[in-house]
């Protein structure tokens, strides 16, 4: 089993809000003793209770899954589904890694790029495969400009994957599209089609993607199982997930 997730932590260069307040065993003993109406000195280990944390967190912080509602209010002409409405069957299946680690920041992945990457690994997609876009930009997690260093998926490439029967996709880059400041600059110059084209494709065709994966470079291109189940947050546009690849060492 290979962990494909990045941690949620303090001092992160993620632009999404995340803050962890750690409450140690002694502080919890004082707090809970008052709530329970007991003396902390009477606890089995005097003055010591259980540790806890208080977390302030964007639903898009860390490794997370975006739901269709994130892309727009509707998908395929119907109210877009929230993260608690995503079929669990989408979240577990055969994984396929397509290598775009050679691409530079801001480059847009097109349909031809996907087809060439599949040809290189001699693989034909089937419905409900989980396609993982490898950029290796997870290695920049500790760089202050992490969110500015990845290539991204274009509209046509995203729609093409959906047309192949893919409902779950993912990237080890900071985001599914190219870096936001680059898209914003294009929008200011009048190119509205360049603004979140990969995300907005989900308004026309329903799908989910996972952002901020890690260690895709440690995986085979296919022949493994991928699992990433989102935390059940009511009516949310995303949910944190622990993404894992399962490789059967006895299958060869």
UniProtKB/TrEMBL annotation:
Coiled coil: none annotated. One of its GO terms (molecular function) is arylformamidase activity. Pfam families: Cyclase. This is Cyclase family protein. One of its GO terms (biological process) is L-tryptophan catabolic process to kynurenine. InterPro entries: KFase/CYL, KFase_sf. It comes from Vreelandella glaciei.
